[in-house]
Amino acid sequence: MQIAIELPNDFVVLQSIKDIEHDMRLSYSLWLFKNAKITLSKAAELAAMDVYTFISECKKNEVPVIDITRAELLEELAGMDEI
After folding, report:
1. CB-side exposure of 47: number of CA atoms within 13 Å?
2. Among 27, 43, 32, 33, which residue's Cα sits nearest to residue 66?
């Protein structure tokens, strides 16, 4: 699927079309992942990156990769004692 948007010319001269496409794919991937619309691997695929590079981008953009509270983590760890 291809989506076309119209940008004012003065925005396009700031970056190449390829850079704009990359930034838009990354921004949309980050938004989708942050809002739990897609998985980490799908977000990385949409951003045209490997998972590790996408995780690095998440960190740069303050998007949590692991969405678990401290209490939930402690509960999970406590449950491991039973195994």
Report:
1. 26
2. 33
For residues 54 and 43, is the Cβ–Cβ distance under 8 A? yes
Query: What is the number of alpha carbons within 13 Å of residue 22 lying toward its C-beta?
Result: 8
**Residue ranges per structural domain of the chain:** 9-80
Altogether, the residues listed in the chain come to a count of 83
- 42 Cβ partners below 8 Å, 6+ apart? 32
pLDDT in tens, 23-60: 999 999 999 999 999 999 999 999 999 999 999 999 99
Residue that the structure tokens 């119209």 belong to: 6
